[in-house]
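name: query_chain
kind: protein
chains: 1
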Amino acid sequence: MGKVVITQVRSAINRPKRQKATIQALGLKKLNVPVEKEATPQILGMIRKVNHLVKVEEK
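structure:
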């Protein structure tokens, strides 16, 4: 499996608890700080749930 670089570009303030928890589970802590993850089906599903808050690049 490949790798993906995930960057949070929008705030999680005023979002449902599930979206905040997903952002935290992806390892995102601050805006515009990239995190590199393995592209597993679980990670891709989490990205899909918060795709309006993050930017994703394949590596």
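note: The helical segments are 17-25, 41-49.
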